[in-house]
Design brief:
Layout (H helix, E strand, L loop, with lengths): L1 H30 L5 H38 L2
Main location: endoplasmic reticulum
Keywords: Endoplasmic reticulum, Membrane, Protein transport, Translocation, Transmembrane, Transmembrane helix, Transport
Family: Belongs to the SecE/SEC61-gamma family.
Length: 76
């Protein structure tokens, strides 16, 4: 009897949510559509602009901290 109870618990805890995730993922993929060329271009440009902005921010932060690190290290 304990074997059946553990199988039911396993089914409810593991296979039930896994199957629900599979079913929901399958439905999402069916509903999705490929972007047309114009939409893809907009997304690519926005992503590229975001990479450039984040890169410049990182570069300038690094540039600001180089002299600060030199002051800290030289005082040791």
């Amino acid at each position: 009897m304990a074997k059946d109870e553990s199988d039911d618990a396993l089914t409810q805890m593991v296979w039930g949510p896994a199957y629900a995730f599979y079913r929901d993922s399958k439905m999402l993929v069916r509903r999705c559509a490929k972007p047309d060329k114009n939409e893809f271009t907009k997304i690519a440009l926005a992503t590229g602009a975001g990479f450039l902005v984040m890169g410049f921010i990182g570069f300038f932060v690094k540039l600001m901290f180089i002299p600060i690190n030199n002051v800290i290290v030289s005082n040791l």
